[in-house]
Task: inverse folding
């Protein structure tokens, strides 16, 4: 199966620690998106890449968050100095450029900040 | 951000029944999508709608892009236990020049065998 994969699936950390998540998109897809989902809510857009360029960032992406897609393939999302409010499911999705609306999601990384 | 209101918030139905849910917005949308999410998993795209009035089916699922472009509907016919999950609408507002979606808060569906 060559769907979107994310690693790790679960992460528990203490407040103040840094965490990094990885997303491997579907290999032919140019675009890669990061979303955050809290309990009882729909996903909220964080940022997206077209190949290696980060083209759009949400106001939700504070300066403690940074995302990279260095070679236009996999992407990492790092959260520095985690806070309890960062606890959420972090979802990655990918799509073709021309059919960007058709986004395929990974299984997500669930983060718990103690 | 954009507010997408989904209704109902939750549904408990008997297996075999038909299901209807909807999503409304205060602004005009260019695209509407419907996703299903199982617990602990990412959303899975069910149907994408691109034009006002468009009616699209995917098996037992049928979705419509409202004529006003401010709403969308999803129907599931003859529900089965594996239809259980949370259904999200998502869309791209016409006013949004970027490439991002806004998601609704979801409709939780429980199917009683």
Result:
């Amino acid at each position: 199966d060559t769907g979107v994969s994310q690693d790790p699936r679960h992460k528990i950390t203490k407040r103040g620690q840094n965490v990094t998540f990885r997303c491997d998109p579907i290999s032919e897809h140019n675009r890669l998106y990061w979303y955050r989902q809290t309990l009882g809510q729909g996903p909220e857009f964080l940022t997206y890449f077209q190949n290696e360029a980060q083209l759009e960032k949400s106001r939700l992406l504070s300066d403690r968050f940074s995302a990279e897609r260095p070679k236009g393939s996999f992407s990492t999302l790092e959260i520095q100095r985690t806070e309890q409010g960062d606890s959420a499911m972090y979802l990655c999705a990918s799509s073709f450029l021309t059919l960007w609306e058709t986004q395929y999601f990974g299984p997500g990384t669930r983060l718990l900040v103690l | 951000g954009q507010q997408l209101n989904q209704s109902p918030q939750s549904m408990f139905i008997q297996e075999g029944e038909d299901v209807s849910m909807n999503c409304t917005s205060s602004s005009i949308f260019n695209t509407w999508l419907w996703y299903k999410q199982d617990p602990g998993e990412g959303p899975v795209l069910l149907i994408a709608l691109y034009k006002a009035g468009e009616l699209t089916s995917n098996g037992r699922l049928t979705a419509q892009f409202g004529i006003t472009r401010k709403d969308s509907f999803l129907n599931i016919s003859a529900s089965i236990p594996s239809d259980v999950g949370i259904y999200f609408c998502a869309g791209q507002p016409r006013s949004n020049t970027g490439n991002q979606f806004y998601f609704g808060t979801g409709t939780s569906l429980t199917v009683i065998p």
Notes: The first strand of chain A starts at residue 5 and ends at 7. The mean pLDDT of chain A is 93. Chain A touches chain B at residues 4, 31, 33, 40-45, 48, 55-56, 58, 91-93, 100-108, 110 (CB under 8 Å). The radius of gyration of chain A is 13 Å.
